[in-house]
Design goal:
Number of helices of chain A: 1
Organism (chain A): Periconia macrospinosa
Strand order of the largest sheet of chain A: 2-1-4-3
CATH topology of chain A: Ubiquitin-like (UB roll)
CATH superfamily of chain A: Phosphatidylinositol 3-kinase Catalytic Subunit, Chain A, domain 1
Helix content of chain B: 55-70%
Structural class of chain A: alpha+beta
Strand order of the largest sheet of chain B: 2-3-1-4
Domain Ubiquitin-like (chain A): 2-71
CATH class of chain A: Alpha Beta
Oligomer: heterodimer
Family (chain B): Belongs to the SNU66/SART1 family.
Distance between the termini of chain B: 120 Å
Helix content of chain A: 10-25%
Shape of chain A: globular
Mean pLDDT of chain A: 91
Structural class of chain B: mainly alpha
Strand content of chain B: under 5%
Number of domains of chain A: 1
Protein name (chain A): Ubiquitin-like modifier HUB1
Low-confidence stretches of chain B: 305-338, 382-400, 437-450, 474-478
Radius of gyration of chain A: 11 Å
Keywords (chain A): Ubl conjugation pathway
Strand content of chain A: 25-35%
Number of strands of chain A: 4
Largest sheet of chain A: 4 strands, mixed
Order of helices and strands of chain B: HHHHEEEHHEHHHHHHHEHHHHHHEEHHHE
Radius of gyration of chain B: 67 Å
Chain lengths: 77, 673
C-alpha cells in the first residue's frame, strides 16, 4: 500500500492510500470523495507533464509511496 | 481536511469493484505478496512477455534466490567447520623426523666411513642424470629432420637462381594426389619471379624466322616449347650440401667456373674513427748521424732540377737513387690502379698529383725576380699609352653619359638666362685685354706677363691653365648652358635650314636613304637614256654624211633622195625604239606616289584625303564647328613649327615634353641620353 499526496497549489492537499496497481480512475474517485469535486472535473498530473489517463495504473506512471501529484481543474478541453 | 481513512477508501474501492486495502490491524502475509503464478501458467503467452506474468514469476524468482543464498551460506559453514577440525587435528599431530635437538651420537670415524658411501651415492645420481640427458638428446635427434633427409629431393629451380646472401624458403610443390612424381621443392618468390618473366616474354613479339641466324637451333625453334613442353630446370639434392648434378659434373671433369672470394669480415669491429693520432702509433725517428745526406736531401727538395747534375756528380749515390724511386713511384701507381676504390684513395692520388705539380713548377729565385723587375722597368714607356687609351675611354663614357635635367638645373638655367648678357660682355672684355697683351709680348703663352716681363705668381696653376686654354682656343659664342646643341637658324644656308627642320621633326628622314637611292637610279637612267639617244643621233649623222658623199647619192633624183632618207630614218627609228624598249624593260622602275594637298598646302594622309574627296564628290563640306576645329588644329600645327624645341619659357616644346615625362615617371627630372 502506498500513500499519494494530491495537491492543487491553492491550499488543497490530500493524502490518499492506494495500491500501485490501482488505475488512475480509482485514485480520482477517491480524490473526489476527499475534496468534494466531481470526478470529471479532476485532472491529475505530475508537474510539467501531461495529465494522467484514467485507464493506466499508478505503477505505469511510476507513482510510489509519498509521491506528490498536481491536481488541476479539468475543463474538458 | 482530514485525510482519507482506509475504511472509507476500502468502501470506495469495493464500490468500484477493486480489492480492499489491507487493514493495518489484520495479520500481514510474510514476505512480499505476489500474484499466483499457477493461474497464469495455463495461458499460452510467452513467459515474461507482460507485466502480469513477470510479476507472477517474480515470487518464484525471489524464492529461488533466497534458496540459493541459504545453500551458499550452509556450504560455507560446513567448509569452515571442516577447516577448523583439520586445524585442530594438525595442532596436536606429532612432528616426524629429526629435530635439532635429537642429533645422532656419531664420532668422527663413523662420519668418515659414511662419507665414502655418500660420495658414491652422489656420483651414482650424477651418472643417472647424465644418462637420462643422453637418452633425451638421442631421442630428439632421431626426431629431427636434417639435410640428410633431403637426399634425392628435386628442386624445381636452377642453382644460379639462389642468390647468395638471400634466404629462400622452399616448399613442396603442388601436385595431384595420385601423381607418380617424386616430391619437388620450390621457392614461392622465385616461382613468382619466373611466372612474371614468362608473362613479359610472352608479351614480347617473337620473331619466327631470322634469315640472319646461321643455323643455330632447330628449324622453327619458336615452336619447340609448344611441341615438347616447357623445359623445367631442376637439380637434385644429395643430402651433403651439394647437388647431384654438381657431383656428376665434377666426376665428368667439367671445370667449375671461377668463384670470387668475398670477405665476410663485415661484422668485424671497426676501429673507432679518431681525429687525433694515437700516441702509440707515433714513432720518433732517430736523427741520422750523416750530415752530408741531410743537406743534400734539403737541396733536392729546394730544387728538383738539380737532381740530374747531382746524379752525375755522384755525391751520394744512395740518396739519388732514393729520390728517383720517389719520383717514379707515383707514376707507377697511376698506371696500376685507375679505378679508385675509396674516397681516401682518391684523396691520396690527388695529393701525390699536387706534389708533383708543385715540384714541376719552377721555383722563383731572387735573380729571376730582379730580372723580371728590370723587364718591367723597360716596358713602362708603353704603359702611358695604355693609360691614355683608358682616359679616352673614360672621356667617351662621360660624353655618352648624357645630361640630366631636373628642377634644379632648370632653375639654375633660368637664373643664368638673366646673367648671361653681363657675363658675355665681361668675357668679351677680358678677351680683348688678353689679346692686346699677347700682341705686346709677341708670344702665344698663356701666362699673363707684366710690363717688366714678370709672370704673375699670384695666379694659381688652375687659373693659369684656364687662361692658356682660353687664349689658344677662344671660347665659342654658341656654347649653351644646357650642354645641348643649339638650334640652327635659317640664316646659315639651306643645309642649316634642313637641319633645323629635321630637329623640329617637321621632316622625317627615316626612309631618306631609300628614296635617295631610287631618285639617283632614276636620274642615272635618264642620263643614260639621253646619252644613248645622242650617240645614236651622232651615228646617224655620220652615216648620212657618208651616204651623201657617195656616188650613188649624187646620181639620185631629189625625189629618190627624199625616199631614201625617209626609209633610212624609219629603219633607224625602229632600231632605236627597239633598243629603248629593251632598256626600259631592263632598267626602268616606276616610282608611284600619290600625294594629296589641301587648300592650305598641307599633305594629307589617307584618311584626310578620303574625306576631302568625299566632300568634293558630295559637294558638301563639314559643319561650322568641325571646320573651326580643323582650322584651329592647323593653326596650332603652324605655331608649333614656328617655335624652337629648346624653348623652356613657354609651355610646349621641350619643356612640355619634359613635364609630361616627369609626370609619367613620377620623377622630378628627366634623363636625356
Amino acid at each position: 500500500m502506498i500513500t499519494v499526496t494530491v495537491n492543487d497549489r491553492l491550499g488543497t492537499k490530500a493524502q490518499i492510500p492506494c495500491m500501485p496497481s490501482d488505475p488512475v480512475k480509482l485514485l480520482k474517485a477517491m480524490v473526489a470523495a476527499q475534496i468534494g469535486r466531481p470526478v470529471h472535473e479532476i485532472m491529475l498530473k505530475r508537474q510539467g507533464q501531461r495529465p494522467f489517463h484514467d485507464s493506466l495504473s499508478l505503477a505505469d506512471y511510476e507513482i510510489s509511496d509519498g509521491v506528490q501529484i498536481d491536481l488541476e481543474l479539468n475543463t474538458g478541453d | 481536511m482530514a485525510d482519507l481513512s482506509i475504511e472509507e477508501a476500502n468502501k470506495i474501492r469495493l464500490s468500484m469493484g477493486m480489492a480492499p486495502l489491507p487493514v493495518p490491524g489484520a495479520a500481514a502475509p510474510a514476505g512480499p505478496t505476489f500474484k499466483q503464478a499457477e493461474e497464469l501458467l495455463g495461458s499460452d503467452e510467452e513467459p515474461a512477455s507482460t507485466v502480469e506474468t513477470r510479476q507472477a514469476a517474480a515470487f518464484d524468482n525471489w524464492q529461488k534466490l533466497q534458496d540459493e543464498r541459504e545453500a551458499a551460506k550452509k556450504k560455507e559453514q560446513r567448509l569452515a567447520a571442516i577447516k577448523k577440525e583439520r586445524e585442530r587435528l594438525g595442532r596436536f599431530a606429532k612432528m616426524e623426523g629429526k629435530g635439532l635437538a635429537d642429533v645422532e651420537d656419531e664420532d668422527d670415524t663413523a662420519w668418515l666411513k659414511g662419507s665414502k658411501k655418500r660420495a658414491k651415492k652422489i656420483a651414482k645420481a650424477e651418472q643417472m642424470q647424465r644418462e637420462l640427458e643422453e637418452r633425451e638428446r638421442q631421442a630428439k635427434e632421431a626426431m629431427q629432420y636434417t639435410e640428410a633427409d633431403l637426399a634425392g629431393v628435386k628442386v624445381a629451380h636452377e642453382v644460379d637462381q639462389f642468390e647468395d646472401g638471400e634466404d629462400q624458403i622452399l616448399v613442396l610443390k603442388d601436385t595431384a594426389v595420385d601423381a607418380e612424381d617424386d616430391d619437388e621443392l620450390e621457392a614461392v618468390s622465385l616461382r613468382d619471379k619466373e611466372r612474371l618473366q614468362e608473362k613479359l616474354d610472352s608479351k614480347k613479339r617473337k620473331r619466327g624466322y631470322n634469315p640472319n641466324d646461321e643455323g643455330e637451333g632447330s628449324l622453327l625453334a619458336q615452336y619447340d616449347e609448344e611441341i615438347d613442353g616447357k623445359k623445367h630446370k631442376t637439380f637434385t639434392l644429395d643430402g651433403q650440401g651439394r647437388t647431384v648434378e654438381e657431383v656428376e659434373a665434377e666426376a665428368a671433369g667439367v671445370k667449375k667456373p671461377k668463384r670470387v672470394a668475398i670477405s665476410l669480415d663485415i661484422l668485424k669491429e671497426e676501429v673507432p674513427a679518431n681525429d687525433y693520432m694515437d700516441v702509440s702509433e707515433v714513432k720518433m725517428k732517430k736523427p741520422k748521424k750523416k750530415k752530408k745526406t741531410k743537406s743534400s736531401k734539403r737541396q733536392r727538395v729546394e730544387d728538383d732540377d738539380e737532381i740530374a747534375a747531382m746524379q752525375e756528380e755522384g755525391v751520394d749515390g744512395m740518396d739519388v737513387e732514393d729520390s728517383i724511386t720517389i719520383a717514379a713511384k707515383p707514376k707507377k701507381k697511376f698506371n696500376e690502379d685507375q679505378s679508385f676504390i675509396d674516397d681516401d684513395d682518391l684523396q691520396a692520388q690527388l695529393a701525390t698529383q699536387r706534389q708533383l705539380a708543385l715540384k714541376k713548377r719552377k721555383k722563383m729565385r731572387p735573380e729571376d725576380i730582379a730580372r723580371q723587375l728590370r723587364e718591367e722597368a723597360t716596358s713602362t714607356p708603353q704603359t702611358p699609352d695604355v693609360m691614355d687609351t683608358t682616359e679616352s675611354y673614360e672621356e667617351a663614357a662621360e660624353a655618352d653619359d648624357g645630361l640630366v635635367i631636373d628642377e634644379t638645373t632648370e632653375f639654375v638655367h633660368n637664373l643664368k638666362a638673366n646673367i648671361l648678357d653681363e657675363e658675355e660682355e665681361a668675357r668679351k672684355r677680358q678677351r680683348r685685354g688678353t689679346s692686346r697683351i699677347s700682341d705686346g709680348a709677341k708670344s702665344s703663352t698663356a701666362a699673363r706677363v707684366d710690363d717688366d716681363g714678370d709672370v704673375d705668381m699670384g695666379q694659381s696653376y688652375a687659373e693659369a691653365g684656364e687662361e692658356e686654354d682660353r687664349t689658344i682656343n677662344p671660347p665659342q659664342s654658341n656654347l649653351t648652358e644646357t650642354g645641348l646643341e643649339a638650334e640652327k637658324t635659317t640664316d646659315e644656308g639651306l643645309g642649316a635650314t634642313l637641319a633645323l627642320l629635321r630637329q623640329r621633326g617637321v621632316i622625317t628622314s627615316s626612309d631618306s636613304g631609300d628614296t635617295n637611292a631610287l631618285y639617283r637610279e632614276r636620274q642615272k637612267f635618264l642620263a643614260d637614256k639621253q646619252r644613248a639617244e645622242e650617240a645614236a643621233e651622232r651615228l646617224r649623222k655620220e652615216q648620212r654624211e657618208r651616204e651623201r658623199n657617195s656616188t650613188r647619192w649624187n646620181n639620185m633624183t631629189p625625189r629618190e633622195r627624199e625616199e631614201w632618207a625617209r626609209k633610212n630614218n624609219v629603219a633607224a627609228d625602229q632600231v632605236e625604239s627597239r633598243k629603248l624598249a629593251e632598256v626600259f624593260n631592263k632598267e626602268y622602275k616606276p616610282m608611284v606616289e600619290l600625294k594629296y594637298v589641301d587648300e592650305h598646302g598641307r599633305h594629307l594622309n589617307e584618311k584626310e584625303a578620303f574625306k576631302m574627296l568625299s566632300h568634293q564628290f558630295h559637294g558638301k563640306g563639314s559643319g561650322n564647328t568641325k571646320t573651326k576645329k580643323h582650322l584651329d588644329k592647323i593653326a596650332a600645327e603652324k605655331r608649333k613649327l614656328a617655335e624652337t624645341s629648346l624653348d623652356t619659357t613657354r609651355s610646349g616644346g621641350l619643356s612640355g615634353a619634359l613635364d609630361q615625362q616627369a609626370k609619367k615617371n613620377k620623377f622630378a627630372g628627366v634623363r636625356l641620353q
